């Protein structure tokens, strides 16, 4: 029995050790892949900068060859000069058109007497409308609170002037007037 327990313990230890080694192998593979990727990126950076320099040198050579070819060929030289001249004229014309349109727009604004604030007028109107609605609600609330007080006061006054009281008061006044008239005679 003791031998079976000893074998199971050693088998468990072997399993644990094997699992640990498998995990370490995975970590090692990750480390190697990381190192390889870092080395490749370094090489690409070096290759990219040298490749870029080669492309710049090639572009400079083509540019100088093209300029030499244009200078040597009269027709191409004239065409390049004309293209340059037309480009300058087009830029000048575009500038004049821009100034013309801006002047016309300024004149139009002056004619219509539209200050630049007109563009924000809609926003201002919406703000004022909101404020007006809030004030209207406040007034309605105040009126609602005043009405019950007026009704209560009116009820008190009406109770004092009930038909019984008003008839008795009128009879007393009439009697007093009659007494005054008869006293004067």
Distance between the termini: 151 Å
Low-confidence stretches: none
Count of DSSP strands: 0
Q: Please work out how many helical segments DSSP would assign.
A: 4
Q: Which structural class should the secondary elements be placed in?
A: mainly alpha
What proportion strand?
under 5%
Largest sheet: none
Globally, the shape reads flat
Order of helices and strands: HHHH
What is the averaged pLDDT score?
79
* Computed CA radius of gyration, to the nearest angstrom: 53 Å
Helical fraction equals over 70%
Explained architecture:
The chain is mainly alpha-helical. It has a domain at 119-185. It has four helices and no strands. The model has no long low-confidence stretch (mean pLDDT 79).
List the helices and strands and how they pair.
Elements: H1 2-72, H2 74-112, H3 121-160, H4 163-184
Helix pairs in contact: 1-2
Short description:
By secondary structure, this protein is an all-alpha fold.
Key terms:
mainly alpha; 185 residues; 4 helices
